[in-house]
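User: Teach me something about this protein's shape.
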Amino acid sequence: MSRVKMSAVCLVLIISFGVVGSAGGGVTFDRIYYVAPDGDDNAVNDGGLPSFPLATIQKAIDNAENGDIVKVAEGTYYSVLRIKSDGSFCR
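Assistant: First, the predicted structure itself:
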């Protein structure tokens, strides 16, 4: 996947999980999931720490809920992404 396409996927993931602006102009969210090519999708790792990222974007999507952010590190990821969402951007 090209760098431009990967950037577009990252943007879509962030938008899809409902980043909501707060009254102070900042961004609020519930949780951040980290993904990196050298990550690990095992049952113990939930991807909530940058030092222990998940290996696949799909695992992060499956864990994420409305209001969460998925941060994807630079790298090559081969998968078809399935986002199970009702399409709402806010709670």
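Now, about its shape. Helices lie at 3-16, 57-63. The first helix runs from residue 3 to 16. If you'd like, I can walk through any region in more detail.
User: That's plenty for now, thanks!
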